[in-house]
Amino acid sequence: MTKTGNECLEIAVSKLSSAAEGKSVVLHCAEGLNALIAAASLGGLDPALSADAQRLLFAAAPQVAAETAGRIAAEHIFHSLGCANAALTCTDLDRFTWLLATARILESELRALHLRDLVVASSQLDLAHALSRNPLAAVFHPEPLTAH
Q1: Backbone angles phi and psi of 46, in degrees to 5
Q2: Which DSSP category does 143 fall into?
Q3: Is-contact 113 26, C-beta < 8 A?
Q4: Helix (H, G, I), strand (E, B) or coil at 146
Q5: Residue 20 φ then ψ, to 5°
Q6: Are 60 and 12 a contacting pair, CB within 8 Å?
Q7: What angle do CA 70, 76, 79 make, to 5 degrees?
Q8: What Cα–Cα distance (Å) separates residue 53 from each residue in 21, 79, 137?
Q9: Which residues pair with 146 in a beta bridge?
Q10: In whole angstroms, how far apart are CA 45 and each of 50, 51, 81, 92, 125?
Q11: pTM (predicted TM-score)
Q12: Distance (Å, rounded) from C-alpha 47 to C-alpha 71?
């Protein structure tokens, strides 16, 4: 069943709210960005719900920056979440595409970081080794994912 833009935006609001509250910050922010990108792509969004999502993007940003400190640059997080915010109201197609791409890059970095944290915390060293050797799997490096 295909979701509407507002249904996706409700999911984004829920996930971003959890991230802003400090609950599974990295994963919930990534999931919130994914839902927000889907909502923005579908369009026809409720202005009140959009405003709520925009507020939560800025509320979650410090939590995400703190949780990923030393692994993803805070400037990159704030910039990318700002781009997600701008995408909700952008009318220029070229800029809209660029804004969504920037938000999607952060989403993928957050998901990779979450997966890397899961692998490091597990006792299955063979899984970590397999992921590090597979170029199609999540990036597995000890250094930060994004260097600015």
Answers
A1: -70, 125
A2: S
A3: yes
A4: strand
A5: -65, -30
A6: no
A7: 150
A8: 14, 16, 30
A9: 72
A10: 7, 10, 18, 16, 45
A11: 0.82
A12: 34
User: What tens digit of pLDDT does each residue of 91-143 get?
Assistant: 999 999 999 999 999 999 999 898 888 777 777 666 666 666 554 444 444 45
Sole residue written with tokens 């792509």: 41
The answer to whether the Cα torsion of 85, 86, 90, 96 is positive or negative is negative
Q: Tokens 């250094």 belong to which residue?
A: 143
- Which residues on neighbouring strands pair with residue 9, listed in sequence order? none
What is the dihedral angle through the alpha carbons of 90, 147, 137, 142, rounded to the nearest 10 degrees? -150
Give me the amino acid identity at 93. Answer: L
Q: Count CB neighbours of 32 within 10 A.
A: 29
Task: Please return the burial class of 146, using the count of CB atoms within 10 Å of its CB with bins 0-12, 13-18 and 19+.
Answer: middle
Q: Which two tokens stand for residue 75?
A: 């400037």
| Paired tokens of 59 | 């509320």
